[in-house]
């Protein structure tokens, strides 16, 4: 009875709207009634009742469709449920109930219900028919806008209802055939593809969402059946709709889409065909940003893995072709190649490679070839990415034995291969390691690192040197990459070149400002040096026992040592004590010792190396007094002994000290020169006194370091022996410091407290000083007497008697030099010692070269010690310098003498030592030395390269530590180091200006630029030039004046180096200052352009204004820099530079062009040769600032005409001169001499061609300026020789080609091309 009432209500509702073309939506009550009837399978009763009322079953569609289009999501979804239930009811007239219009309404209802909680999903693609509501209805909202209606709240939505609707939709797909309705099928696919994204927030739990995704998958699988259309077309539409999900960020929706797509691999052929093309479609749709692009690559690879092998290779071919497309596709292709090679099987064909198939048939080689080409791409981002990808593939493919062989063959390093050929791998690496993009250089170093492992360390020497230079790169990441690359090369291949480059590049980074680089430097040194030496020397004892039982007469000592310590251990030790490496080794050892990271094994290893060397020497029956330890062994032991004193055996030290001490007592080494060996045929056993002295020095340092652990009696005996050796004054100068420092340390060990130790030290210091002063005084008096006696004999005495005296004097000189050097060392060891007896002697020595009336009255030698004993004279200045460092009053009196000697001395060694002393004085007595800095800077132009380099380094350090300021002429004099004759000094200067000053004093180059132009040309009209600071001679000395090509190129190199340090805003300001202070000054008569220096200044200004370095960095490469996501700072700097320059450039040019015009007229009146330079500069400015000059020329037509005419005139004259010069230098032949009458016609032709070229050049420049403006065409202007060349009609396009070609041929345009 109740069901009958329900049927009656439904039918009555339908009867009420009979004949209405747009019936209102069924109420929720009616929909509930219908749902109840269908749930109880009473659809037959409903149809019977409809038939009795003359209503067709299709009458249910309009009101249900209207309900599905209604605004409340719950109401709409309920209507959708009823609609599907009607189709699923028993014996339902499916073809009558199903219509495309009603199904589209159902799809709109489904989308709206899913979007009730999410408004960020993909846009709706289904068509939405427009329907108007009746005017009398209370609900007047537009269903199209129901997505944002406030009553679509979550409280009205039931996730379970949505799941039921999708379940019924899956069942309905078996009843309906959509092949007749392709648009409906397309809308269904798009709707279902959107549901995983839009319904993510609708589902209340993860389980419900998982069920939802399963239902969507079932629907999409159902539409692929043949009854719904051609499977290949349907599959293509499904994949196209899922593309946005596949390319989205990681989420469940993306996982669902990928899972569904990969499941299509087992479907019928039509579906597989669409799946094969899907990766290519994804590649085209892939985003350009890094993270989304990486996800797209992952998605593409997921799809590629499920297709067959033939299709995978076809996709590889597509990717290789894509690597030659536009920039975004090339970048994506590089990423895809990496994943293809690492994911797919057998990339290099090693599992199926036979003799008939070559490498060209292997798809992995295609990928590698494409990568190598991309390593030289025009885009920096692609170059960097390709290099890093190639590095990863080298590391990946190099793991297999067979793949590594193929890889080496491909790289050109296989059998008979040469990677050094033009265009080869090494050639490419050399270029990329010096690339202007930091990311490219870093990736190149990574590739070198992996290639080193692949090739076993066989690295090109140029690449190796480049890696060493990269250790000084301004970027931290670059320095880290260089350390890793060089260390991998050292770790893999211990050749002498690799060891040398590593030791000269990596250890110096211990003073890097970045702490992480310092730590990496320490780690690498410990692993590659200390641990390597420890491991190599651990097997020494067993090898020695084995070799002692063998006859090794055929083996030399060096060969036996190399066999005993392989892998370059001996060469490594020898290079460690190199003067350029040892300071950094000391610093590293100190840092490792302070961190307690020193291992006692290194001490045992070094003792084993020294002991083994001695044993092998004795085994070959060589005299022990000729033996020296392997170079570097004692040095390294002395450094590590500071922190491992307990690990060193005192008996070992005592034995070798007695050996070396006995060696000297026996008198084998009485001079610091090489002693000839009795066994002349054995070159390997020639003994060098310097090596012997070095061994003694480092042994003494080791003894000094472990003196705390020495027994008291041996320590006292050793101290006594050392003091006796010092008082003999016959040691090499390198030994004196070590002896005195060891004495001081042993005295502290012997004394019971600090005061007693100081008293003991002072006692023996005074004793040694007394002995030294006697020897010095004796030498001075002997020298004076000898000179006095020699002056009475004419001619001079000669013969055996003179030879004996000369030998005695030589011995006395050697002893006096050692004594005076010892005095200087004693001042450092004990500054409190009494030097009252020494100062007069030193004063006598250093003033012996002076010839003043006052100085002649002083007691002393009649002739100059500077001439008779130069070494003694130099040591006197050194000792006086050390005394001045200890005594401020003495320094105040003698510093002027040091400066005077620096200016007049002819000895490069003395000048070098005085520069070092003046640098120390500047630290200790800054105020006293400050007034002499200008005189010290004269040494920057010293004839001796060593003095110049030493001066540059010392002054640079003082400037960095702010002991000296960049004021006065100091900066301007430093500029000449940029063009020094020595390449080392030029490199130091480039580093100082390009790295240190750019950070520490960024405004220095800008503030001093214009003044530098005047100073370098020795021109004195500039307001900022300081006339009082230096004589005319000094001004000429520190200038590069001259109009010759060499002088001009030197000045331009300096200018360009300064311009490279400036920010964009400073470049603009420098441009303005040059125009205001040089060009405007010349046009106003303040700068004399008839004077040679004035002309040189003006010509330099024109060249600077026309060079590319003064231009603002172009934004043409913004697309490339945007791709370089590893270098994120480039985009910000480019945007900042663009914002700065937009308004400033326009105002700058508005003020500049009138100055050029005025100056041009002045130069024309004087018929100056500078008119050519001015026109070249003006042409460059017109081309570079064409957008800003455009507004000026529009406002001033007369100026436009003048510029056109002047440029044309100048270009014509220049072209004629070029032709005339070519004719003049052309060799004359017999035929030419007979046809001299033809030359005038040839000249006329050349002249006509020059006129045409000049006109074309002028038009090309101004045409670029006038592009896009309202300025009249040049043909309408009354300008001679221009109007006739303009042309109209079709000839205009031909002329444009001629113009472009003429511009490209002109030499004057070469400097404008940046790419």
TrEMBL record:
Gene3D superfamilies: Leucine-rich Repeat Variant. Its main location: nucleus. It comes from the Eukaryota. It is found in: Nucleus. One of its GO terms (cellular component) is condensed chromosome, centromeric region. Residues 128-140 have a biased composition (Basic residues). The keyword Transmembrane helix does not apply. One of its GO terms (molecular function) is histone binding. Residues 1-27, 117-158, 1025-1044, 1116-1136, 1221-1245 are annotated as: Disordered. Signal peptide: none annotated. It comes from Cajanus cajan. GO terms for biological process: cell division; meiotic chromosome condensation; mitotic chromosome condensation. This is Condensin-2 complex subunit D3. Keywords: Cell cycle, Cell division, DNA condensation, Mitosis, Nucleus. Residues 1230-1240 have a biased composition (Polar residues). Residues 910-1078 form the Condensin complex subunit 1 C-terminal domain.
């Amino acid at each position: 009875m109740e069901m009958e009432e329900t049927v009656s209500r439904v039918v009555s509702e339908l009867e009420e709207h009979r004949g209405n073309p747009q019936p209102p939506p069924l109420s929720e009550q009616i929909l509930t009634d219908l749902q109840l009837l269908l749930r109880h399978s009473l659809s037959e009763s409903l149809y019977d009742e409809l038939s009795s009322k003359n209503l067709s079953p299709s009458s249910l569609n309009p009101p249900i469709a209207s309900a599905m289009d209604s605004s409340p999501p719950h109401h709409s979804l309920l209507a959708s449920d009823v609609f599907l239930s009607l189709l699923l009811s028993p014996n339902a007239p499916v073809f009558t109930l199903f219509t495309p219009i009603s199904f589209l309404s159902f799809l709109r209802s489904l989308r709206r219900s899913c979007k009730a909680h999410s408004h960020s999903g993909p846009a709706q693609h289904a068509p939405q028919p427009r329907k108007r509501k009746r005017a009398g209805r209370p609900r007047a909202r537009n269903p199209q806008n129901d997505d944002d209606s406030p009553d679509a709240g979550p409280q009205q939505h039931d996730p379970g209802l949505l799941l039921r609707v999708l379940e019924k939709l899956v069942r309905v797909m078996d009843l309906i055939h959509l092949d007749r309705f392709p648009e409906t099928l397309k809308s269904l696919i798009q709707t279902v593809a959107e549901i995983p994204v839009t319904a993510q927030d609708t589902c209340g739990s993860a389980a419900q969402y998982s069920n939802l995704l399963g239902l969507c998958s079932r629907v999409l699988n159902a539409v692929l059946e043949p009854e719904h259309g051609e499977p290949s077309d349907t599959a293509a539409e499904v994949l196209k709709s899922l593309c946005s999900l596949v390319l989205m960020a990681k989420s469940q929706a993306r996982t669902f889409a990928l899972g569904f797509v990969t499941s299509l691999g087992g479907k019928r052929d039509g579906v597989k065909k669409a799946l094969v093309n899907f990766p290519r479609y994804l590649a085209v749709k892939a985003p350009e940003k890094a993270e989304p692009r990486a996800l797209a690559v992952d998605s593409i690879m997921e799809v590629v893995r499920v297709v067959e092998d033939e299709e995978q290779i076809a996709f590889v071919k597509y990717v290789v072709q894509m690597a030659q497309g536009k920039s975004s596709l090339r970048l994506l292709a590089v990423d895809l190649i990496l994943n293809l090679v690492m994911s797919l099987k057998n990339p290099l064909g090693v599992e199926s490679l036979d003799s008939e198939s070559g490498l060209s048939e292997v798809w992995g080689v295609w990928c590698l070839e494409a990568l190598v080409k991309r390593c030289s791409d025009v885009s920096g981002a692609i170059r960097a990415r390709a290099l890093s990808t190639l590095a990863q593939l080298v590391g990946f493919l190099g793991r297999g034995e067979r793949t590594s062989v193929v890889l080496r063959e491909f790289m050109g390093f296989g059998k008979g291969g040469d990677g050094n050929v033009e265009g080869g791998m090494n050639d490419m690496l050399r270029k990329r390691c010096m690339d202007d993009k930091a990311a490219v250089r870093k990736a190149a170093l990574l590739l070198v690192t992996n290639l080193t492992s692949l090739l076993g360390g066989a690295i090109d020497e140029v690449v190796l040197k480049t890696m060493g230079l990269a250790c000084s790169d301004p970027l931290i990441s670059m320095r880290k990459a260089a350390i890793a690359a060089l260390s991998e090369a050292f770790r893999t291949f211990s050749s002498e070149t690799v060891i040398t480059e590593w030791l000269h590049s990596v250890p110096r980074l211990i003073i890097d400002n970045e702490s992480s680089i310092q730590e990496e430097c320490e780690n690498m040194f410990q692993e590659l040096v200390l641990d390597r030496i420890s491991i190599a020397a651990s097997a020494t004892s067993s090898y020695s026992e084995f070799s002692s039982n063998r006859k090794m007469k055929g083996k030399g000592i060096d060969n036996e040592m190399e066999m005993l310590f392989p892998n370059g251990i001996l060469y490594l030790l020898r290079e460690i004590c190199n003067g350029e490496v040892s300071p950094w080794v000391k610093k590293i050892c100190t840092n490792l010792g302070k961190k307690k990271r020193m291992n006692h094994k290194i001490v045992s290893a070094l003792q084993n190396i020294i002991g083994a060397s001695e044993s092998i020497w004795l085994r070959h029956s060589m005299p022990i007094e000729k033996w020296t330890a392997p170079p570097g062994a004692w040095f390294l032991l002395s450094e590590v002994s500071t922190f491992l004193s307990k690990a060193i055996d005192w008996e070992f030290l005592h034995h070798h000290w007695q050996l070396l001490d006995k060696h000297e007592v026996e008198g084998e080494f009485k001079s610091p020169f090489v002693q000839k060996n009795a066994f002349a045929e054995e070159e390997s056993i020639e003994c060098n006194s310097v090596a012997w002295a070095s061994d003694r020095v480092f042994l003494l340092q080791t003894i000094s370091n472990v003196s705390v652990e020495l027994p008291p009696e041996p320590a006292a005996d050793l101290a006594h022996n050392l003091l006796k050796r010092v008082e003999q004054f016959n040691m090499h100068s390198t030994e004196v410091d070590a002896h005195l420092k060891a004495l001081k340390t042993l005295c502290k060990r012997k004394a019971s407290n600090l005061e007693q130790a100081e008293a003991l030290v002072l006692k023996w210091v005074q004793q040694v000083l007394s002995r030294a002063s006697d020897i010095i005084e004796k030498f001075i008096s002997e020298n004076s007497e000898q000179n006095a006696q020699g002056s009475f004999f004419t001619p001079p005495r000669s013969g055996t008697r003179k030879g004996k005296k000369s030998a005695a004097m030589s011995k006395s000189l050697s002893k006096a030099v050692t004594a005076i050097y010892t005095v200087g060392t004693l001042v450092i060891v004990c500054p409190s010692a009494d030097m009252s007896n020494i100062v007069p002697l030193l004063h006598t020595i250093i003033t012996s070269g002076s010839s003043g009336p006052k100085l002649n009255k002083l007691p002393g030698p009649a002739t100059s010690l500077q001439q008779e004993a130069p070494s003694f004279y130099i040591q006197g200045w050194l000792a006086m310098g050390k005394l001045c460092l200890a005594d401020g009053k003495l320094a105040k009196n003698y510093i002027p003498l040091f400066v005077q000697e620096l200016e007049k001395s002819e000895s490069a060694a003395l000048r070098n030592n005085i520069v070092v002393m003046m640098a120390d004085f500047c630290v200790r007595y800054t105020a006293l030395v400050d007034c002499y800095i200008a005189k010290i800077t004269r040494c920057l132009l010293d004839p001796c390269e060593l003095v110049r380099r030493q001066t540059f380094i010392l002054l640079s350090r003082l400037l960095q530590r702010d002991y000296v300021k960049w004021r006065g002429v100091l900066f301007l004099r430093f500029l000449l180091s940029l063009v020094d004759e020595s390449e080392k000094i030029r490199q130091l200067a480039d580093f100082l200006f390009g790295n240190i000053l750019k950070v520490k004093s960024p405004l220095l180059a800008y503030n001093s630029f214009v003044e530098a132009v005047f100073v370098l040309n020795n021109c004195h009209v500039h307001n900022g030039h300081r006339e009082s600071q230096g004589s005319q001679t000094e001004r000429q000395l520190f200038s590069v004046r001259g109009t010759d090509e060499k002088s001009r190129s030197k000045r331009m190199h300096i200018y360009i180096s300064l311009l490279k340090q400036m920010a964009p805003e400073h470049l603009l300001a420098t441009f303005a200052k040059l125009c205001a202070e040089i060009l405007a000054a010349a046009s106003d008569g303040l700068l004399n352009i008839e004077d040679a220096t004035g002309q040189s200044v003006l010509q330099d200004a024109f060249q600077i204004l026309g060079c590319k370095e003064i231009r603002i960095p172009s934004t043409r490469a913004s697309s490339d820099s945007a791709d370089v996501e590893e270098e994120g700072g480039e985009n910000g700097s480019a945007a900042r530079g663009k914002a700065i320059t937009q308004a400033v450039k326009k105002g700058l040019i508005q003020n500049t062009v009138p100055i050029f015009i005025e100056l041009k007229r002045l130069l024309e009146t004087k018929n100056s040769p500078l008119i050519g330079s001015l026109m070249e500069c003006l042409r460059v400015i017109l081309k570079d600032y064409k957008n800003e000059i455009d507004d000026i020329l529009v406002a001033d037509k007369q100026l436009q005409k003048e510029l056109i005419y002047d440029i044309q005139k100048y270009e014509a004259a220049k072209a004629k001169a070029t032709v005339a010069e070519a004719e003049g230098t052309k060799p004359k032949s017999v035929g030419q001499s007979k046809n001299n009458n033809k030359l005038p016609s040839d000249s006329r032709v050349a002249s006509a061609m020059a006129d045409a070229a000049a006109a074309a050049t002028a038009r090309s420049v101004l045409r670029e300026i006038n592009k896009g403006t309202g300025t009249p065409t040049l043909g309408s202007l009354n300008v001679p020789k221009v109007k006739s060349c303009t042309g109209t009609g079709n000839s205009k396009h031909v002329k444009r080609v001629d113009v472009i070609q003429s511009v490209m041929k002109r030499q004057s345009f070469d400097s404008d091309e940046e790419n």
